[in-house]
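Q: Could you predict the 3D structure of DUF1311 domain-containing protein?
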Amino acid sequence: MRALILLAALMLSAAWPAAARECGPDATQMDLNDCAGDGLRKADAALNETYGRIMSRLKPAPSAAQSLREAQRAWLRFRDGECDFVTIGAEGGSIRPMLVAQCRQQLTEQRVAQLRRYLSCQEGDLACPVPGGG
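A: Sure. Here are the predicted C-alpha cells for DUF1311 domain-containing protein:
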C-alpha cells in the first residue's frame, strides 16, 4: 500500500506544472529541490542534443564515435561521483538533492560548452576530433 501511495505522489509531483513551483525566497526545500532538478534537466537536454550532433558528424569515423561514447560514459561517472563527494557534508539532509542537482547542472553546462567547441573547430585543426559540418 505504501508503494502505491509513493508512486501516486511521484506521479503527481512529476505532473505538477513547473510554473506552480515557488523558486523564490518563500520556497520550501522541496520546491527548491524541484527547481534545481528542472535546471539539471535543461542542462541534460542541451548535453544530449550536443552529443547527438557530434555523434552524427562522427558516423564516418566509428573509432572516433566509440572513443567519444567511452569518454562520455566516463565523464558521467566523474560528474556524479564528484557531486556526491562535494555534497557529502549534507548527506541525509533535505538540502542535499538541491546541492547535487546544482553541482551536476554546473558540470553539465561546462561539458556542453566543451562539446560545442568541438562543433566549431577550424578546418585543418588536428587537435580537434570532430570534422567540420558542412
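Q: Anything worth pointing out?
A: Confidence is low (pLDDT under 50) at residues 1-19.
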